[in-house]
């Protein structure tokens, strides 16, 4: 019998309630059948990739060079991901690992364009932005309804990132709207032998536990677990 699949959540960073959101995500991962470990140190997380089947990035570290308002925070929070770490992340997925990127993970590691390529889309300082945290409506696509057993249309309170520009090889599962037009907020793609899922929602526990969002996350974890376990294939 195959050992229980394992998941590592890389958690922490600037200006978000990561302890809160990682606690919720940990519960979902365990409910989905993953043995779980949480790391708040990127070097330790990269070193453990060989031990896990799924990596969840629920963090916010980037170069912080764009605006002077970040200057007081750079000493603590600014981070440039080394090329060796980026290569390890890519190899993890290409060789069959599963990757789930949550919310601020789409902003991480802005000096590494291969991170956006691996996700299939993400934050661009030239194009992307988000309105203030507030009421939003999420609509699952036809493909998204295949991944979730929850409502196809639901409301939540969140930051809805705009202009993440998922690439043409991504399957968009959900669009979010705060009154400025629908924006892709969740998608999946394949890279080599691995699977990648991106959920750009999830600012706090209110978002993660909204019933429609919770059902979508559980669906993503089920899809990623197929890759992790080899228990059958799907589309």
Automatic annotation (TrEMBL):
Source organism superkingdom: Bacteria
Domain called ThuA-like: residue spans: 7-223
Record-linked Gene3D superfamilies: 3.40.50.880
InterPro entries recorded: Class_I_gatase-like, ThuA-like
PANTHER family: GALACTOSE-BINDING DOMAIN-LIKE SUPERFAMILY PROTEIN, SECRETED GLYCOSYL HYDROLASE
Protein name per its UniProtKB record: ThuA-like domain-containing protein
């Amino acid at each position: 019998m195959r050992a229980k699949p394992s998941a590592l959540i890389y958690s922490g960073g600037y200006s978000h309630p990561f302890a809160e959101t990682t606690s919720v995500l940990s519960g979902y991962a365990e409910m989905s059948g993953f043995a779980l470990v949480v790391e708040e140190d990127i070097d330790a997380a990269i070193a453990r990739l060989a031990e896990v089947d799924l990596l969840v990035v629920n963090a916010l570290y980037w170069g912080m060079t764009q605006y002077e308002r970040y200057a007081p925070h750079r000493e603590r929070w600014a981070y440039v991901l080394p090329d060796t770490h980026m290569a390890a992340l890519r190899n993890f997925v290409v060789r069959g690992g599963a990757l789930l990127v949550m919310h601020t993970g789409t902003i991480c590691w802005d000096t590494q364009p291969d991170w956006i390529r691996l996700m299939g889309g993400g934050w661009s300082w030239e194009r992307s932005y988000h309105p203030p945290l507030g009421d939003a409506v999420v609509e699952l696509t036809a493909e998204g309804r295949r991944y979730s057993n929850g409502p196809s249309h639901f409301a939540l309170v969140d930051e809805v990132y705009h202009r993440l520009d998922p690439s043409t090889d991504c399957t968009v599962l959900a669009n979010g709207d705060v009154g400025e037009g629908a924006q892709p907020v969740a998608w999946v793609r394949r890279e080599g032998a691995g699977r990648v899922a991106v959920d750009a929602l999830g600012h706090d526990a209110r978002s993660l536990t909204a019933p429609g969002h919770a059902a979508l996350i559980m669906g993503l974890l089920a899809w990623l677990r197929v890759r992790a376990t080899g228990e059958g294939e799907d589309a």
